[in-house]
UniProtKB/TrEMBL annotation, chain A:
InterPro entries: ABC_transp_permease, LivM-like. The keyword Iron-sulfur does not apply. The chain crosses the membrane at residues 6-25, 32-54, 60-81, 88-106, 118-143, 177-198, 204-220, 227-244, 250-271. The keyword 4Fe-4S does not apply. Its main location: membrane. It comes from Streptomyces carpinensis. This is Branched-chain amino acid ABC transporter permease. Coiled coil: none annotated. It is found in: Cell membrane. It holds the Pfam family BPD_transp_2.
TrEMBL record, chain B:
It comes from Streptomyces carpinensis. One of its GO terms (molecular function) is ATP binding. PANTHER family: ABC TRANSPORTER ATP-BINDING PROTEIN, CONSERVED COMPONENT OF ABC TRANSPORTER FOR NATURAL AMINO ACIDS-RELATED. This is ABC transporter ATP-binding protein. PROSITE patterns: ABC_TRANSPORTER_1 (PS00211), ABC_TRANSPORTER_2 (PS50893). The keyword Transmembrane does not apply.
Length: 318, 259
């Protein structure tokens, strides 16, 4: 391969690992589930892969798979535990899950290597294999954004009550989100541990929560493409920002704050809006000129018995 | 239409002595009704009389404080709301609840997805809903021209039609409509009324919650009047509207007779 590829191999690997990590937070978020359990799963996956490789010399994919299974089970149990929580409270509870796992890693004795972590997890995992796994994941997630599954996920996020009224089993969908998130997070963690041959409690802590959230907010929270944009930017940005030295974190903060305020749909949202606007200019939709908002009460409600005249009634006329 | 009680068709859906209390607030307190197969039943009542809460209770969106709910004679008050939809009970909401990022077509497909079958992993790869159900719902509600529009681009009346179309696309046996014509003009109201009557003739059991008394009298086979969460009276539409207790509760001091 080219010189550039060899020189940047670590960054290229990190980009794909970050993509999976970002997707592990994004997938539940698409269903309105504000869960950081994917980060905890990253830790589970990293330690499981390292332990299975060092102690039992399992092949790379078996070691990663073992971590994924553990994380999926943990995700399901966590989903049962926090089933009554929502929004910020759910976010807090799942961050707690992640922090607890960090504490377990530090105090895990010889199994987790304590504060130093584990070294020498040498495997045959290739960068090409990592990219292949990412491609499969992206295809599956792209499918989940279209057609029936896409509509159902949208409904669960936008209006759970409506979703159940059209027969969507919202609770089951949310549990599935935890399980998928666990699988993605653990896969990212496992691959990272084997690529780096090492894992320590510092690698799986709170900083990953911030990183994953940053990637999704800046890239876009609704589609895998947003996660990809975010993971590329925030893996390569430190490289670009080496010039500003200690000010890196400040630049980071400013970028995140600006995106959150001015482009809440992320860079992907900006691109999509531009594309939609271009298409709309070429042909407006027939018979759809007035605007109505879903939340407004109809105009006829205040005087229910008066017959409505022909042109009064639309509640949300612009 | 004034069928005597004894000749009434069997009840598809029945609610008995339903109560929904929120803390000290008795939103619904001992209300009940029977939806007879292939008939349209209407609930009449002033704002805040508990009609929508009752509908939410019947569709299992809010828990019952007490009462019995039966579908085909079988109790269902522990059935999850989603399962109820699979058993053929569809509803619309008082406010327009469409997914803003989806087109009209996709919003209606969301209803038809129910009949596409195959949960779990299989649904991941399924692209289209039941196309016939979607097309039929679009045609019936006259939404062909706006199928690729987004909800934000629709007039209120049009958006309400999408709500009805989405419910129809689930191919229900029982359809519960919560103020389906609110915000519509007279012509649109007439269309909805005609659609409901056509669906009834095809055997669909319906419940209508509405404010438009003349429309209810025209559309419904039976009216149930509600006030403060309780039953006032029930019977043939013309009689219910003339009932002094209904006039008092619903029509207020004006006492106008819309029948």
């Amino acid at each position: 391969m080219s010189y550039w590829y060899d020189a940047h191999l670590i960054l290229i690997q990190s980009t794909f690992v970050s993509l999976l990590l970002a997707l592990s937070i994004q997938f539940p978020l698409r269903m309105g589930v504000f869960s950081f359990a994917g980060i905890g799963s990253y830790g589970i996956g990293a330690y499981a892969a390292a332990i299975m490789t060092i102690r039992y010399s399992w092949p790379a994919f078996a070691a990663i798979g073992a971590g994924m299974v553990v994380a999926m089970v943990a995700g399901y149990l966590l989903a049962l535990l926090v089933s009554r929580l929502d929004g910020l409270y759910l976010g807090m509870a799942t961050i707690a899950f992640t922090l607890i796992l960090t504490v377990v890693a530090i105090n895990g004795g010889s199994l987790t290597g304590g504060a130093q972590g584990l070294y020498g997890a040498i495997s045959t995992l290739q960068t090409g294999q990592v990219i292949l796994v990412c491609a499969v994941v992206v295809v599956l997630l792209a499918l989940s954004e279209r057609g029936r599954m896409g509509r159902r996920i949208d409904a669960v996020r936008e209006d759970p009550e409506l979703a159940v009224s059209v027969g969507i089993r919202v609770i089951r969908m949310r549990r599935m989100a935890f399980v998928v998130s666990g699988a993605l997070g653990a896969c990212a963690g496992g691959m990272n541990a084997l690529l780096r041959t090492t894992v320590s409690p510092d690698d799986v802590g709170f900083s990953l929560v911030v990183l994953a959230l940053t990637m999704i907010i800046v890239g876009g929270s609704r589609s895998w493409a947003g996660a990809l944009i975010g993971s590329v930017i925030f893996t390569w940005l430190p490289q670009v920002l080496q010039a500003v030295g200690d000010w890196q974190t400040v630049v980071y903060g400013v970028i995140v704050a600006l995106t959150a305020v001015y482009v809440p749909s992320g860079l992907l949202g900006v691109a999509q809006n531009g594309y939609r606007r271009m298409r709309r200019r070429s042909g407006p939709v027939a018979g759809a000129t007035e605007k109505a908002t879903g939340s407004e009460e109809p105009g006829g409600d205040s005087a229910p018995l008066e017959p409505l005249s022909e042109d009064v009634p639309t509640g949300g006329t612009r | 239409m004034n069928t005597p009680e004894d000749a009434a068709p069997p009840a598809v859906l029945e609610a008995q002595d339903v109560a929904v209390h929120y803390g000290g607030v008795k939103a619904v307190d001992g209300f009940g009704l029977k939806l007879e197969a292939g008939r349209i039943c209407g609930i009449l009542g002033p704002n805040g009389s508990g009609k929508s809460t009752f509908l939410a209770a019947v569709t299992r969106l809010v828990p019952l404080t007490r009462g019995r709910l039966m579908l085909d004679g079988e109790e269902y008050h522990n059935t999850p709301a989603a399962s109820l939809a699979h058993r053929g009970v569809a509803r619309t909401f008082q406010t327009v609840r469409l997914l803003p990022d989806l087109t009209v077509l996709e919003n209606i497909q969301l209803g038809a997805d129910l009949r596409a079958g195959g949960g779990g992993v299989k649904q991941w790869f399924r692209r289209t809903a039941v196309p016939e159900a979607v097309e039929e719902a679009i045609e019936r509600t006259g939404l062909g021209a706006v199928r690729s529009a987004r909800p934000g681009e629709l007039s209120y009346g049009m958006a309400r039609r999408v709500e009805i179309a989405r419910a129809l696309a689930t191919r229900p046996r029982v359809l519960l409509l919560d103020e389906p014509t609110a915000g519509m003009n007279q012509a649109e109201r007439r269309e909805v009324s005609q659609l409901m009557q056509k669906l009834r003739d095809e055997g669909l059991t319906q419940l209508l919650v509405e404010h438009d008394v003349p429309m209810m009298v025209d559309t419904c086979d039976r009216l149930v009047a509600m006030k403060s969460g309780e039953l006032v009276t029930e019977g043939a539409p013309a009689e219910v509207v003339r009932d002094p207790a209904v006039q008092e509760a619903y029509l207020g001091k004006r006492g106008r007779n819309h029948a």
